[in-house]
Each structure stands twice: as structure tokens, then as C-alpha cells.
Amino acid sequence: MHHAWLLQGEAGIGKATVAFAMARHILGAGQDGQAVARQIAGGGHPGLLHLARPPVERGTGFRTQITVDEIRRLTHFFQTTAGLGWRIAIIDPADDMNRSAANALLKMLEEPPARSLFLITNHRPGRILPTIRSRCRVLRFAELTPDEIARQLAEDVPDSTQDARQAAAASAGGSLRTALQHLMSGGLEVSETTRRLVAMPAPDWTAIMALGDAVTLKGREAAYTLMAQAAFRAVADEAQALAMAGDLVRAERLAAFWQAEDARWREAEAFNLDRKQVLLTFFNGLAEARADSAAFH
């Protein structure tokens, strides 16, 4: 088996679920499968290390990045489990690694320990080093269809209405997790408002300020994340539509804007910058990108 697998696809479509299922299958071979599954579910299996953003030292929540210190835990993990069979590391997701962490992981992938397996999830291909990607077998996950999501929502949230499930599924971008957030936390209104504001030819600053106020309140972190996802997806959809229509100049300008904003939002999260200002800068930059494209034409 190849030592490193990159599981790529939208957030919330089951990549981590598959990674843990693979770990249960491999670590449970020749063992009591149920006992192994319980160990993995409880985070206590000696042959599995799950790396994600660590919790903050004080208060609740998680840090904004997977740091190099987290990746260095892999060295200790592989050293102390050398007498076991397969040792599996799940990095979930690689998108959250900072540059130092990514470089440290790359060194391990270049010289992997014996009987080691790296299962790496990745939401956006542009957020992972090409050198890491080149050392992995890539398993791409297709987006779930609205019908597939709606059927699963009927099982997960049986007291919801069919109309609500269909609306949540249609706006989820192929992600079951996003659909659940839309259905259960008022996220659908946030996403629809965001997409409507992005679609406007000129910024409606009053509505944008109101959206910023709503999603940056304490305890509204999930709403802020949904807003960001909806904004970036709306820009990506617009760029794709322009490219399909043959308007490559405007498509390229929007794609460049998307990439620059993606990097800026990640930096803002890493340094805990003012989220409302980040949102305002996003819409201002979008207006400028569209104006530049129009002027070029």
C-alpha cells in the first residue's frame, strides 16, 4: 500500500469519515474489530494519531492553524510505536497547516517510517504544497447531489420539513455538513444573504454592514464560517460561468481575486484580525476586481 493518501473534496462530504474507516479496517485486521473501533472512537488506539487544530489554551474553541509542533508529534508517535504493525496518521485537514508545519510533513513523506500510513484530508487543492501532493495518491471526492443530501437530512433531522431540507440541500454546495448547519442553526439565511450581496453589481454597504454585524457577534462563529464559504463559492461560480461563456478576461480577474482573498482571510484568521473589517475589504476588493475587468473591456 502506498504510504500517503490525499483525500480531496469539499468540506463536510465525508473525507475524514473515510479516513477513520480506512484506519479501522487496517488496524482491525486479525483483531477484535469492535474493540479496535471503540479504541479509535475514544482516541485511545496506540496505532493511530489524529492531528487537527489544537484547542486554545484558555477558554473554548480551537486555534486557527495546525502548527509545526503538532506535526512534530508524529516523530514521537512513530518512534514509540515502532514495535507495532501499521501506524496511521490522519492530518485533518491539510488546509489548516501553516508553512512550517507543511514543510515538516513534507520531510516525513519523503522518508516515511516503515509500515506508516498518512491519510491527509484537503478541502481546497490550492491550499496544499504541490510537493506534498506529488508524494501522495490522490483520492478525489465528488460533491454530494442535493437529492443525496436531502435524503440524509431526512434521517439526521427527521423533525424538519421537506421544504426546509430541500432548501438546505440546494444551497449547501455538495456538503452535508453545510446543509446540516443551514438546517439547524439558521445558516441558510446567512448563506442566501451573502450570495445575494455578492451577486449585486455594486456593493450595498448598508446590507453588508448589517451582515457583518450579524455574523461577528460572540457565539456566531459558525455563521461567520458559513458566510465566508458562501462568499467564496459565489465568486467561484461567477468566474466559472464567465469562463464557460468565453469571457476569459473577467474570469481570470475574478479567479485572481479569489486566490488573493483566500490567502488574506487565512492570514486574518491566523492573526485574529477584525472579522468585520475583513468582510468589508472583501466586498471592496470584489468591486475593484469587477471594475478593472470592465475597464479592460
UniProtKB/TrEMBL annotation:
Pfam families in alphabetical order: DNA_pol3_delta2
**Could you mention a single GO BP entry for this protein?**
DNA-templated DNA replication
Q: Which InterPro entries match?
A: DNA_Rep/Repair_Clamp_Loader, P-loop_NTPase
* CC annotations in GO: DNA polymerase III complex
User: What superkingdom does the record give?
Assistant: Bacteria
Q: Which NCBIfam families match?
A: PRK07471.1
This one is known as DNA polymerase III subunit delta
Q: Which organism is it from?
A: Aureimonas frigidaquae
